[in-house]
Amino acid sequence: MGRAPCCAKVGLHRGPWTAKEDALLIQYIHSHGEGNWKALPKEAGLLRCGKSCRLRWLNYLRPDIKRGNITPEEDDLIIRLHSLLGNRWSLIAGRLPNRTDNEIKNYWNCHLSKKIQKEALPNPKTKPIESKDKKKKKKNKKTKKMEKAEETTKIHLPKPVRISSSFKYGFESLIEPGRMGGECDASDLLWSDIMNFNGVVDDHDLVFQMSSIDSLEANMLEKLYDEYSRLLFSEDYNQ
DNA sequence: AAGGGGGGCAACCGCAAACTG
DNA sequence: ACAGTTTGCGGTTGCCCCCCT
């Protein structure tokens, strides 16, 4: 026996969303706001589970989402952030305004991981994910020798950790309250504070991993983020 | 023209953190 | 403090479409 499903699936719609379902979800969220995903489907008249509604809203229906056309600057930033953070898609997405973690994850798996492999950059933190379907398709082409070579080079990642919403929406949450407000702008704190933070953490904690990054790389990334922000919000870029 | 293979991406799954009573 | 519930996340699946042979 497996674990019980997150919601009663009997009678619930699955698969692609219809325009009507989208309209119902948008209408409900416009009048009631986000949240309470568990109760939302029932109240909105949707035959979907709450998780499905949340995902649809966050990854597709939200009005401020930027979709497709990932710029070379974003591309570069994703690669650099990934080399530093690994598969923390929500964290990476948090540094790319209006992009969703799902889009970045898909973009990485489809484009960037291959690009990186092609360029033979050292130390990619993960190998690209392949579906069973695709694995099946490709398996026939592989020789046993190749499979053995892959096995020996398998990379094991530390288990991803959950980042709380306060952390996700601003690293300033890690900083003592006195530093916020009048004398110090939150935007000044971002990368430098992340890199200097030394919280009480365990082996698998993201912050621990961040604090272990050497200062050279930290400075590089801080500069990178700074440059990217300037570029993104400059008039030229927005034209 | 047909069909097999691969790319792209929306959506689902299961785990675990965060929240609540 | 603890158990149950909700939410957020990364991994994975599978469908659709296009391209190549």
Write up this protein.
It is found in: Nucleus. The protein has 239 residues and is mainly alpha-helical. The protein is 53% helix and 0% strand. The N and C termini lie far apart (56 Å). The protein has helices spanning 19-32, 40-44, 50-61, 72-85, 89-94, 101-119, 132-139, 144-152, 165-168, 190-196, 206-211, 215-233, 235-238. The chain binds a DNA duplex (21 and 21 nucleotides) through α3, α6 and α7.
State mean pLDDT (0 to 100 scale): 62
Outline, from the CA principal axes? elongated
Poorly predicted regions: 1-8, 121-132, 134-214, 235-239
Largest sheet: number of strands, sense, barrel closure: none
Beta percentage is under 5%
Radius of gyration: 21 Å
Number of helices: 13
Number of strands: 0
Q: Which structural class do you get from the secondary structure elements? A: mainly alpha
Order of helices and strands: HHHHHHHHHHHHH
Distance between the termini: 56 Å
Helical fraction equals: 40-55%
Biased composition (Basic residues): 134-145
Domain HTH myb-type: 9-61, 62-116
Domain Myb-like: 9-61, 62-112
Organism: Acorus calamus (Sweet flag)
